[in-house]
Amino acid sequence: QVELVESGGGLVQAAGSLRLSCAASGSISSLNVMGWYRQAPGKQRDLVASIGSDGRTNYADSVKGRFTISRDNAKNTVYLQMNSLKSEDTAVYYCNLKLFTHFTGWSAYWGQGTQVTVSS
Q1: Neighbours of 49 (CB within 10 A)
Q2: pLDDT digits (tens, 9 = 90+) for 24-55
Q3: Cα 10 from chain centre
Q4: ∠ CA 5-84-9 to the nearest 5 degrees?
Q5: Between β-strands 67-72 and 18-26, what pairing exists: parallel, antiparallel or unpaired?
Q6: Band (115; pLDDT cuts 50, 70, 90)
Q7: Residue/partner pairs of 105-114 with CB below 8 Å, 24 or more apart
Q8: Which residues of 16-31 are buried (b: 16+ CB within 10 A; e: fewer)?
Q9: Is 52 left (phi over 0), alpha (psi -120 to 50) or beta?
């Protein structure tokens, strides 16, 4: 069983910063991808950023240069540093963990979501 616990959301003014954290617990395979998705009201859930167990990162074009994803493998924790926040960044942010095993292939897990609200 895998559990993801997020923290760090809140209300911030435009141009401000927030840092999200997501701690994973349970059976975590060595081959995995941790990431953040977001969903604004009435919109689909989209990838914000991801980081593989090899350290490779991927960002949505809309956040490149403003957001930084990182991870602490010893703590099974992923972070999202969000700078220069804009009102369009307002959304519920979800932590995502993808695990690979040779027996089950890829499995995906989600956190409960944390609200980020950017006021203009």
Answers
A1: 23
A2: 999 888 889 999 999 999 999 999 999 999 99
A3: 15
A4: 20
A5: unpaired
A6: very high
A7: 109/2, 109/3, 109/4, 109/24, 110/4, 111/4, 111/5, 111/6, 111/22, 112/4, 112/5, 112/6, 113/6, 113/39, 114/6, 114/7, 114/8, 114/9, 114/20
A8: eebebbbbbeeebbee
A9: beta
